[in-house]
Amino acid sequence: MQRLQGIAVSPGVAIAEAAVFGNEGFRISRRFLSRESVNTEIDRLDQAIAAAAKELDTNRQRVAEQLGDDYAAIFSAHLQMLLDPKLHNELEQMIRDRHYSPEYSVSRAMRRYAKVFLSLEGDTMAERANDIFDIEKRLLRHLLGERREGPTQLTSEVLILAHNLTPSETANLNPDFVKGFVTEVGGPGSHTAIVAEALNIPAVVGVGSFLTEVSGGETVIVDGDNGLVILQPDEETIARYRHEVDEQLSLAAKLETFRDLPSDTKDGVHVTMLGNIELPSEVKQCLDRGAEGIGLYRTEFLFLTREVQPDEEDHYQAYHEVLQATGGAPVVMRTLDLGADKIPNFPLPDDERNPFLGLRSTRLALKHVDMFRTQLRAMLRASVEGPMRIMFPLITNLIELRRAKMVLSDAMEDLDEEGIPFSRDIQVGMMVEVPSAVVMMDHFVEEVDFFSIGTNDLIQYALAVDRSNKDVASLYTGSDPSILRLIKMAIDTANQHDRPISMCGQMCGNPIYTMVLLGLGLRTFSVVPAAIPEIKRVCRSVTIPQCEELAARALSLESARDVRTALRDEIIRILPDQPV
C-alpha cells in the first residue's frame, strides 16, 4: 500500500479501478484474454515490436546521415532495448501464463523497469527511465492504433490517473463513469479543479510523478477531503473508506431536506442562494438543489468543448437554453474569460511568459472585438427570454470597463438597426477579481449595476500566488487575513452605494467560510450545485451576530493558519458532522 499526498480540490471519497492516462492520453486497462486468443495476441505483439523496430531503425539512419553516429546512438540504444530477448520472453510469459493483453503486459513490464531506474540516483538513470517510457509509448501506439481511448470516451466506472487534464477534457468527463481523478501537476483554483467541483467528483491534483507506480485496473482510493491518493490499498483501508463513503451518502441524504427551504439565518435574515454553471445542462442540477437562479454562467466553456469557435447562433442557442431552463429565475452571464490555464481555439502570443498577467479575459475580448461583439449580440438576443444580466470578468480599471460597455452599446445599436428585439434595460455588472478593482470600487459604482467577487483570481493576485502551481499551493488560501479585508472593503463600498454584490468564487462554496462571509456582510452566494445544500444548512444554523463576532475575530488575526483554525473550530462547534 502506498499513500501519496497532493492538493485536495474537490471533496469526497471514491474507490474504483484505475484508468491510467500518460502524456499521450493512452488508457491501458487490465484486459484478460481467452485461452484461444493467446497465440493471436502474441503474434500481434511481435508485429508491434517489428513495426516499432523498423521505425527506430529508420530514425537512426536519418539522424546518422544528418548529424552523425553520436546523435544516432540514442535510437540504437532504444532499438537494442526493444529487441532484447529477455523483454520479449517476459512479455510473452505474461500473455501466456496470466492471459494479460499485450498492451497491459507492455505497460506493466516497462513501468517496472522505469521504476527501478527512477529509484537510482543520478541524471543518467533518469534518462534511462525516459528511454523506457519512449519505447513503451512507441509500442503502445502500434498496438492500439485507432483503438486508443481518451479520458472522455470511458464506458465503465473508473478513477482517472493522468499527468494532467485540460479544462476542456475535464468539462467533457462523464460523471456516470468518472468517479474521481488525480493528476501529477496542477494546483487549487485552476479551472480543471473548478470543473471537478462542478461535476461533484473527488479530485486531487499536484501529486507529483506517480504514474509509474500504478497500472490500469488496480484498485485506487481518492480522498478528496484530505488530498490523499492510496495505491494498492489493503482490505482494512478499503473497508474504512467504504464506511466513510456510506457516511457521506448519509449526510447527502440529510442535506436533501434543505432543497425547498429558504436560506434564512436563524434570526430571519434572508441569504440569496444562486448556482454556478459551465454548461446549460447544469441548470436543472442547481434548481433541483434549491437555487434561486444562476449567479454565474461561465460562457467560455462554449469555446472549450468544441473544435471550432462558436458562431452567433451557437452562442444564442446556449443562452436561450439556459434562460428557458431557469423558468424566469435570474441569470448572470459572464462574458468570455479565456486565456491563462484555459485553452482557446485561437492563438495567444507566442511570447506569453506570464499568462495570468497577460492577455486574458476582458483584455483578450477587447483584442478580438469581432468575437466579443458576436457573443454580446447573442446575449442580447437571448435577453428577451427572461431576466438576464451581463457581467464582465477581470476588470482592472475604468477605461477597460468603459471600452467593454462601448462594445455592448455597439451591439445594441446593430440589433436596433436590424430590427432584432432585445431587453433594453439589461443590467450590466463586473467581477471584482483584482486588488485594483477593490481599491477603485467607489468609482466603479457609478458605472455598473452590480458586482460579483471572484475569489479564485482575487486570492491569486492579492497573494501573488499562481493558483495552478503546486509548489506554492499552500500559500493559496482564502483564510489569509488580507483576503478577508479586501472582501470586507468590497462589500462595504457596494453597500454604501446601494449596489448589489455577490460572491461566485470557490471560497463561498466551502462551508468553512460561510459564517465569516455572512459576518463580513455578504448576502448573496453563488456556488456549484453540489454545495448549495451545505451552504444553506450552515446559513440556517447561525445568526448574523454570531457571524459578525467570528468575522471581527478573524480580521484581528495575523496568519491564514490562525484564521482557518478559528473558522474550522466554529463550524465544528455548530455542526459537528460537517466535513471541513
Automatic annotation (TrEMBL):
<feature type="binding site">
    <location>
        <begin position="456"/>
        <end position="457"/>
    </location>
    <ligand>
        <name>phosphoenolpyruvate</name>
    </ligand>
</feature>
<dbReference type="InterPro" id="IPR006318">
    <property type="entry name" value="PTS_EI-like"/>
</dbReference>
<feature type="domain" description="PEP-utilising enzyme C-terminal">
    <location>
        <begin position="254"/>
        <end position="542"/>
    </location>
</feature>
<dbReference type="InterPro" id="IPR036637">
    <property type="entry name" value="Phosphohistidine_dom_sf"/>
</dbReference>
<dbReference type="Pfam" id="PF02896">
    <property type="entry name" value="PEP-utilizers_C"/>
</dbReference>
<keyword id="KW-0808">Transferase</keyword>
<dbReference type="GO" id="GO:0008965">
    <property type="term" value="F:phosphoenolpyruvate-protein phosphotransferase activity"/>
</dbReference>
<dbReference type="InterPro" id="IPR040442">
    <property type="entry name" value="Pyrv_kinase-like_dom_sf"/>
</dbReference>
<feature type="binding site">
    <location>
        <position position="433"/>
    </location>
    <ligand>
        <name>Mg(2+)</name>
    </ligand>
</feature>
<dbReference type="InterPro" id="IPR000121">
    <property type="entry name" value="PEP_util_C"/>
</dbReference>
<keyword id="KW-0175">Coiled coil</keyword>
<keyword id="KW-0762">Sugar transport</keyword>
<keyword id="KW-0670">Pyruvate</keyword>
<feature type="domain" description="Phosphotransferase system enzyme I N-terminal">
    <location>
        <begin position="5"/>
        <end position="128"/>
    </location>
</feature>
<dbReference type="GO" id="GO:0005737">
    <property type="term" value="C:cytoplasm"/>
</dbReference>
<feature type="binding site">
    <location>
        <position position="467"/>
    </location>
    <ligand>
        <name>phosphoenolpyruvate</name>
    </ligand>
</feature>
<feature type="binding site">
    <location>
        <position position="457"/>
    </location>
    <ligand>
        <name>Mg(2+)</name>
    </ligand>
</feature>
<dbReference type="GO" id="GO:0046872">
    <property type="term" value="F:metal ion binding"/>
</dbReference>
<dbReference type="InterPro" id="IPR050499">
    <property type="entry name" value="PEP-utilizing_PTS_enzyme"/>
</dbReference>
<dbReference type="InterPro" id="IPR015813">
    <property type="entry name" value="Pyrv/PenolPyrv_kinase-like_dom"/>
</dbReference>
<dbReference type="InterPro" id="IPR008279">
    <property type="entry name" value="PEP-util_enz_mobile_dom"/>
</dbReference>
<feature type="coiled-coil region">
    <location>
        <begin position="35"/>
        <end position="62"/>
    </location>
</feature>
<keyword id="KW-0418">Kinase</keyword>
<dbReference type="InterPro" id="IPR036618">
    <property type="entry name" value="PtsI_HPr-bd_sf"/>
</dbReference>
<dbReference type="Pfam" id="PF05524">
    <property type="entry name" value="PEP-utilisers_N"/>
</dbReference>
<dbReference type="InterPro" id="IPR023151">
    <property type="entry name" value="PEP_util_CS"/>
</dbReference>
<keyword id="KW-0460">Magnesium</keyword>
<dbReference type="Pfam" id="PF00391">
    <property type="entry name" value="PEP-utilizers"/>
</dbReference>
<keyword id="KW-0479">Metal-binding</keyword>
<keyword id="KW-0598">Phosphotransferase system</keyword>
<feature type="active site" description="Tele-phosphohistidine intermediate">
    <location>
        <position position="191"/>
    </location>
</feature>
<comment type="similarity">
    <text>Belongs to the PEP-utilizing enzyme family.</text>
</comment>
<feature type="domain" description="PEP-utilising enzyme mobile">
    <location>
        <begin position="157"/>
        <end position="227"/>
    </location>
</feature>
<keyword id="KW-0963">Cytoplasm</keyword>
<protein>
    <recommendedName>
        <fullName>Phosphoenolpyruvate-protein phosphotransferase</fullName>
        <ecNumber>2.7.3.9</ecNumber>
    </recommendedName>
</protein>
<feature type="binding site">
    <location>
        <position position="298"/>
    </location>
    <ligand>
        <name>phosphoenolpyruvate</name>
    </ligand>
</feature>
<feature type="binding site">
    <location>
        <position position="334"/>
    </location>
    <ligand>
        <name>phosphoenolpyruvate</name>
    </ligand>
</feature>
<dbReference type="GO" id="GO:0016301">
    <property type="term" value="F:kinase activity"/>
</dbReference>
<dbReference type="InterPro" id="IPR024692">
    <property type="entry name" value="PTS_EI"/>
</dbReference>
<feature type="active site" description="Proton donor">
    <location>
        <position position="504"/>
    </location>
</feature>
<keyword id="KW-0813">Transport</keyword>
<comment type="function">
    <text>General (non sugar-specific) component of the phosphoenolpyruvate-dependent sugar phosphotransferase system (sugar PTS). This major carbohydrate active-transport system catalyzes the phosphorylation of incoming sugar substrates concomitantly with their translocation across the cell membrane. Enzyme I transfers the phosphoryl group from phosphoenolpyruvate (PEP) to the phosphoryl carrier protein (HPr).</text>
</comment>
